[in-house]
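Incident log, structure service

09:12 report received: a user says their structure output differs between two submissions of the same chain.
09:20 pulled the input from the user's history:
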Amino acid sequence: MAHCGYAVKGRRGLRSSLMWWLAVIVMAGYYAQTGHAADTAGDSGQAGNAAAASPGSKSLWINPGLYSIHFQDKGYNNDNWGLGLEYRYSDSQSIAVGGFNNSDSKTSHYLSWYWQPFAIGPVKLGATFGALDGYPDYHDGGWFLAAIPAATYEGNRFGLNVLLVPSYKDKLHGALSFQLKYRLY
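09:34 re-ran on a clean worker, output below:
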């Protein structure tokens, strides 16, 4: 079954893909109902909500992994479930740590630093620099360094990181990856 330019393999793949899109729709609906109103509250007396989304405020985010759309359909795992934390300590920088089920269906871990010095409206642009492991065809699954272009949107409660993961020979699989995140504080 084809969907959005990639193939969904079997019932498990279809169910997992539907779960991701359901999560996106629920989060978008919740944001439309509450997040946007809180983000734009301004001087309406909701100082707590406005302060939470103010530029320069420190924040901690949690994420359930990523959803990836691979550039080549070779049966890669698109549902990259996991657990991660991201701590934003300035308008343009954050650090992240976590783990996920990668494109090869193996466990990967990461430690990264986001540097996003540019912005178009509420979207931050830059890259994340860090170390990853778990890809069996690259360094035998060991740790390696990576630089990945990244765009980030952060609302009052929900955010989204979009990563443009480059391909590297037949060892690393290029994809456009989406990482939903929820603000803990």
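09:41 both user submissions now match this output. Likely a transient worker issue. Closing.
09:42 reviewer note: The longest strand covers residues 107-120. Residues 1-15, 35-53 have pLDDT under 50 and may be disordered.
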